[in-house]
Design a protein that fits this description.
The complex is a heterodimer. Chain A is an alpha/beta fold. Chain A is 23% helix and 41% strand. Chain A has a single domain, classed as 3-Layer(aba) Sandwich (Cytidine Deaminase, domain 2). Chain B is mainly beta. Chain B has a single domain, classed as Beta-grasp domain (Ubiquitin-like (UB roll)). Chain B has a five-stranded mixed sheet, with no helix packed on it. The chains are: A alpha/beta, B mainly beta.
């Protein structure tokens, strides 16, 4: 699947991940699945990592619910989540795969392993297998 | 009766329980899903008995976590 993300939303994720380092940062993504098969991320949500850890993350269910409510109000839907890997590559870890319960979701992982060259990838996880999705970062449109 | 499930209006049988709705909606991995009804989290122990009512708004929220 092709996934698009606005540059400003990418920068929002990056800023939050840097701010939370050394802990993992996390949040949700919302948007639409367009009829031509492109998944368009329209909103990025910055949530609390209740594990406060550099090795794990868990989203706060109350914040999750509040973000989903905001998505419903905007007419978009939950598309998955994002989290950072402060010290490891942008790939699904065994734990990421084990805890990816929603096969319809996209899982974005931002690696800050090389601070000067962050890497963001999107993955689809189903049946214990993680597959990289095509992620395109779009320049924001004026107006 | 009409309820809203994951943002969409649905016609369901009167007295449907959360557990029945989970089955009807074919929710994947239901053990790892929290259910909110009108923005209140339902207790898992009540899924089999808690009935839904006209106009209820239901969300299924997957546990989301991972590690490096």
């Amino acid at each position: 699947m092709k996934v698009t993300l606005k540059k400003s939303d990418y920068e929002k994720i990056l800023a939050r991940a840097r701010e939370e380092k050394p802990d993992e940062a996390c949040g949700l993504i919302g948007g639409i699945d367009s009829p031509d098969g492109v998944r368009q991320i329209e909103s990025v949500y910055l949530l609390t990592n209740v594990d406060h850890s550099n090795e794990h993350f868990s989203l706060d269910p109350r914040e999750q619910l509040s973000a989903v409510r905001d998505m419903r109000e905007k007419g978009i839907k939950p598309l998955g989540n994002w989290h950072s890997h402060p010290e490891s590559p942008s790939r699904s870890s065994q734990e990421d795969i084990r805890l990816a319960y929603d096969s319809k979701a996209s899982y974005l992982i931002l690696s800050l392993m090389d601070e000067k060259a962050p890497v963001l990838n999107s993955f689809h996880v189903e049946g214990g297998v993680s597959t990289k999705e095509e992620l395109v970062i779009l320049e924001d449109q004026e107006g | 009766m009409t309820i809203t499930v994951s943002g969409d209006k649905k016609e369901v049988e009167e007295g449907i329980t959360i557990a029945q709705l989970i089955e009807e909606e074919k929710v994947e991995m239901p053990l790892y899903v929290s259910v909110s009804v009108n923005e209140e989290f339902a207790q898992r122990k009540d899924f089999e008995t808690q009935q839904l009512h006209e106009g209820d708004v239901v969300e299924f929220l997957y546990f989301m976590g991972g590690g490096r």
